Amino acid sequence: MSGPQPAGADREGGALTHFDTAGRAAMVDVSAKAETVREATARGRIVMQPETLALIAAGRAGKGDVLGVARLAGIMAAKRTADLIPLCHPLPLSSVSLDLDLAAPDAVEIAATVRTAGRTGVEMEAMTAVTVAALTIYDMVKAADRGMRIEAVRLVRKSGGKSGLFEAP
To answer: Which residues form a coiled coil (predicted)?
Structure first.
């Protein structure tokens, strides 16, 4: 008895899909894709009371170095994206960088850039890094401000692979 075919090109031979020939969710087979250097940058922000931002900037948060811990959490999350997002490929990342900027009067701006040489992109890893960094900031200062909001997590740039360069407007 033969089972369903692996996910990959759709029934018409076009775009990749997360469904096998029986219509069930499956991880896309990317083995036929060329290995290229792939890079993605995502951005987001966590909005808070100006007093909470001042607490972070002054290093007076009760749980320690908020930005240092958030940076580390984002990097670690990027490396574990396949464990968090169903059907996401585990990738050997060659670099992950996180920038946390206190320039806004009431927000920490977060940018993550992730890079690999592989058969599939790192967009999910970059967005996961931003999201987990923001959640870490929330966790570390929630006693001072439970009304914080995580906003505008989005892909702003990606390069490599068959689809080439994408830059958000």
So the answer is: none
Q: pLDDT by residue (tens digit) across 81-132?
A: 999 999 899 999 999 999 999 988 999 999 999 999 999 989 999 999 999 9
**Known binder of ligand: residue 88?**
yes
Query: What residues are paired with 116 via a beta bridge?
Result: 38, 93
List Cβ neighbours of 132 (8 Å cut-off, separation of 6 or more). 73, 74, 76, 77
124 labeled part of a ligand binding site: yes
Q: Has 109 been labeled as part of a binding site? A: no
Three-state secondary structure call for residue 128: helix
CA-to-CA separations, 53 to 24, 47, 104, 105, 144, in angstroms, rounded:
46, 9, 9, 8, 10
**pLDDT one-digit tens code per residue, 39-73:** 999 999 999 999 999 999 999 998 999 999 999 99
Apex 129 CA angle, 92 and 81, nearest 5: 45
Active site positions, annotated:
139
Q: pTM here?
A: 0.86
